[in-house]
Amino acid sequence: MNIQEPIRTPKFLDWDELVQEDKVHRLIYTDEAIFQEEMRKIWGGVWIFLGHESQIPEKNDFIRGKLGLRPIILTRDSGGKIRALYNRCTHRGSTVCREDKGNSKSFACPYHGWSFFNTGKLSGVPWPEGYSCDFSESKFNLAQVPHVKSYRGFIFGTLNLDAPSLETYLGGVRAPLDEWLDRHPGGTVAFCDANRLKFNGNWKLLYDNSCDGYHVIFSHRSLLAMENRQKVGADAAKGMAFYKNSPDNGPMFLKYFGNGHHYKDKRPALEKRPGALWEIEGPHPGMEHYEEKLRAKLGARADEVLDLASSEPININIFPNLHILGNHVQVSQPVSLTETDTTWWGTSVVDDNDQLQGCADDINALRMRTQESFPNFGELDDLMNFEQIQIGLTAEEDEWVYMHRGLGINDRITHAANGTIIAPSTDEVFLRETMREYKRLMSVEPNLAIKRDPN
Ligand code: FES
Ligand SMILES: [Fe+2]
Question: Is the CB of 122 under 6 A from ligand 1?
Answer without folding.
Answer: no
